Amino acid sequence: MSDFTSFVPKASIPTIKKWLDQLDVRIYISKSRVTKLGDFKVINNEYAISINKDLNKYSFLITLTHELAHAFVYDKYKNSVKPHGMEWKSMFKSMMLNFMNLDCFTDNILKVLSEHMLKIKASTYSDLNLALCLRKYDCHRKDVLQDLEENQFFRIKNNRIFCKKRKLRKRYKCIEKNTGKTYLLHPLIEVDLIKSL
User: Fold this and answer.
1) Number of structural domains found in the chain
2) What's the sign of the alpha-carbon dihedral 67, 72, 73, 77?
3) What's the CATH code of the domain at 58?
4) The pLDDT value given to residue 115
5) Phi and psi at residue 100, in whole multiples of 5°?
6) Which one in 1, 60, 63, 114 has a CA-CA gap of 20 to 30 Å to 20?
7) Strands of the 182-185 sheet, one edge to the other
8) Sign of dihedral through CA atoms 155, 146, 59, 76?
9) Are residues 67 and 155 in the same domain?
10) Predicted pLDDT at 133
11) What are phi and psi of 54, to 5 degrees?
12) Which candidate, 112, 140, 3, places its Cα nearest to that of 64?
């Protein structure tokens, strides 16, 4: 099990340790993943949570609490409820209340996080306001899709190249260069701008 304590605000550590002891959960610090920030799994009847190591301490705390809420819900209901259903939302909200203070979050994060808690989404990055607010605390901030101009080419982490097109409601229409296929990409996906092809 990895030591999570250097990845979260200090004031949150006692509460998290208490939860980990209650459930006997193992935490693994994972390399950066494109598709997820964290993950809860049951392996041979043991609970395991992996969290991306490149998250800032506020994102790490929210993601860890999100995954611990999955662990508590699974412990009580097994697979009889939806992963992000009412039971999970209620559990996540009650757990997050432990951290809704200036010892764990900055004032600006608390404001946006309070709004998020009224209408919880399955992913932090589904809430654009919260994702933008948390992104300010990333130490290795890269360009994101919404910062690019229309018709600019960019590369994402898996080395696929796209051309940015117009925004459709919440996501951007993008054309993959090699296949010509159209994809709808999240505005905050990290990109490398390609100046010339």
Assistant:
1) 2
2) positive
3) 3.30.2010
4) 95
5) -80, 65
6) 114
7) 143-144, 190-194, 153-155, 161-168, 171-176, 182-185
8) negative
9) no
10) 94
11) -90, 10
12) 3
